[in-house]
Amino acid sequence: MAAVQSEVAGSVWKVLVSVGQQVGPEDELVILESMKMEIPVQAGAAGVVDEILVAEQDAVAEGQVLVRLRP
């Protein structure tokens, strides 16, 4: 199982996927907001969304797991 992590501290602006959805390696899963900038978080590998660990408006830390993917 692959863990998709936040590269910055900020807040979740939008969750773009749902559990069970098939995604590709460059698909955007979540958009974070940090310092008034929108930062897309990509899957990094193809898979199926197994778990979404954040919701819109949640504060996130750098390195925090946002989404888990299964092959």
Our measurement of the CA-to-CA distance between the termini, rounded to an integer number of angstroms, reads 7 Å
Q: Please report which band the strand proportion falls in: under 5%, 5-15%, 15-25%, 25-35%, 35-45% or over 45%.
A: over 45%
Number of strands: 8
Average residue pLDDT: 97
Relative helix content = under 10%
The largest β sheet comes out as: 4 strands, antiparallel
**Structure annotation, total helices:** 0
Give the overall shape: globular
Annotated CATH homologous superfamily = RNA polymerase II/Efflux pump adaptor protein, barrel-sandwich hybrid domain
- What's the number of structural domains? 1
Structural class: mainly beta
The largest beta-sheet arranges its strands as 1-8-6-3
CATH class: Mainly Beta
Q: How is this fold's topology laid out?
A:
Layout (H helix, E strand, L loop, with lengths): L1 E4 L4 E6 L6 E2 L4 E7 L2 E6 L4 E6 L6 E2 L4 E6 L1
Antiparallel strand pairs: 1-8, 2-4, 2-7, 3-6, 4-5, 6-8
Structure description:
By secondary structure, the chain is an all-beta fold. It has a single domain, classed as OB fold (Dihydrolipoamide Acetyltransferase, E2P) (Beta Barrel). The chain has no helices and 8 strands. The strands form 2 sheets. A 4-stranded antiparallel beta sheet has the order 1-8-6-3, with no helix packed on it. A 4-stranded antiparallel beta sheet has the order 5-4-2-7, with no helix packed on it. 21% of the residues are buried.
